[in-house]
Amino acid sequence: MPNVIEITDFAAPELDVYARLTENQLLNRQEPENALFIAESPNVILRALDAGCVPVSMLLERKHITGQAAEVIARCGEIPIYTAELSILTQLTGFPLTRGVLCAMRRPKLPEAGAICAGARRIAVLENIMNPTNLGAIFRSAAALGMDAVLLTPACCDALYRRAVRVSMGTVFQVPWTYLDCAWPVEGLELLRSLGFRTAAMALTDQSVSIEDPRLTQEEKLAIVLGTEGDGLAEETIARCDYTVRIPMSHGVDSLNVAAASAVAFWQLRVR
After folding, report:
1. What's the rounded Cα separation, in Å, for the pair 25 and 46?
2. 103-124 tens-digit pLDDT
3. What pLDDT, on a 0 to 100 scale, did the predictor assign at position 45?
4. Cis ω on the peptide bond leading into residue 185 (within 30° of 0)?
5. Across residues 243-249, what is the average pLDDT?
6. Which of 123, 122, 187 has its CA nearest to residue 154?
7. In this model, does residue 86 exceed pLDDT 90?
8. Phi and psi dihedrals of 113, rounded to 5?
9. Measured between alpha carbons, how far is 41 from 97 in angstroms, rounded to an integer?
10. Burial class (CB in 10 A: 0-12, 13-18, 19+), 110
């Protein structure tokens, strides 16, 4: 039987993880073994469980216990299942719950970059992507369009921020990813080369080649490097990459949002 607990006290410390802790507090850099993240909606939670993430507790609408969350609950053992009507949960969290189900989970230990790139032929490298919506959208495109792994520079936002996880539809648990633990771009790009990757910087410069250039798809191993939302890739990064690549535009448009650009790049440069 599930361990269902009716919410009667909004101040209960067990609910801090959903209502009062910030993303940085959940990350808990001082005690990483106790770090948490929030997965939202049954499908996202199921993908996290499939990836081996460990649930701690759930918060959901009462009607979902025997409804759309039943499969999730059945897979989560005897963890606390906090419940109430939606109107009460909205007061507690301060926003509507997507499909009425949240799950607090232990943050998994991230692998090393070399481990997730072993055997990979196409990877995405994200430089300083700080918007969790964009990050989540890029992960969704990476999963759908043939990327084998995603590497993040240290200044990127957390791929397990709740909004990033939600926008990705849980694909952050399906595509191997990690942070580069070396100086970017010099050491990071050297690491990629040591792993056999040629690098393609997505940027508009006088030296940019079209994304349709056949040399790109002929590369055995290619790392697609995408830059931050406002300024794009750093000049040093562009200078050190093997290719600088542009997406041909029309109607006077000079660039796309990084999430949209990633989808175009991943599709065009996928392994054929």
Report:
1. 24
2. 999 999 999 999 999 999 999 9
3. 96
4. yes
5. 95
6. 187
7. no
8. -60, -45
9. 8
10. middle
Tokens matching residue 172: 């952050």
User: Which residues have a Cβ under 8 Å from the Cβ of 76 and sit 6 or more positions away?
Assistant: 49, 55, 58, 103
Beta strands at 36-40 and 80-84: parallel, antiparallel or unpaired: unpaired
Measured between alpha carbons, how far is 42 from 48 in angstroms, rounded to an integer? 10
Task: Judge contact between 191 and 182, C-beta under 8 A.
Answer: yes
Say what the pLDDT of residue 95 is: 58
Residue with tokens 């300083």: 128
For 228-244, write each residue's pLDDT tens digit. 977 899 999 999 999 99
Model-wide pTM > 0.90: yes
Q: Which of 71-85, 93-107, 166-180 has the lowest mean pLDDT?
A: 93-107
DSSP calls for the chain: --EEEE---TT-GGGHHHHT--HHHHH-TTSGGG-EEEEESHHHHHHHHHTTPPEEEEEEEGGGTTTTTHHHHHHSTT-EEEEE-HHHHHHHHSS--GGGEEEEEEPPPPPPHHHHHTT-SEEEEESS---HHHHHHHHHHHHHTT-SEEEE-TTSPPTTSHHHHHHTTTGGGTS-EEE--S-TTHHHHHHHHHTT-EEEEE---TTPEETT-HHHHH-SSEEEEE-BTTTBS-HHHHHHSSEEEE----TT-----HHHHHHHHHHHTS--
